Amino acid sequence: MAATERITMTMRELDRYKVIQDVADGVLRPWRATKRLGLTTRQIRRLVGRLREHGPQGLVSGRRAMASANGELVTLYREIRRDILDLQKEPG
């Protein structure tokens, strides 16, 4: 028995998956998928390839696991500000 893997998708990714799956199954023509998803036919072909190669996981955004650069900048800003304030407090 194959192990099942849980995949978290947004509603938009789930809709995209259904349309791309229909294209891969031959139920939907690629040009119709472009109208539904607002993508080009080239992007549709790429997504069909990713679906065939990686399964539904291939359509999930890879950026989801990445940390926000903004959070790192805020932390850096606070550290620098704290250092500056500490330098100002030091006597002369």
Automatic annotation (TrEMBL):
Highest taxon above the source species: Bacteria
UniProt cross-references to Pfam families, sorted A to Z: HTH_29 (PF13551)
Name recorded for this polypeptide: Helix-turn-helix domain-containing protein
Organism: Paraburkholderia tuberum
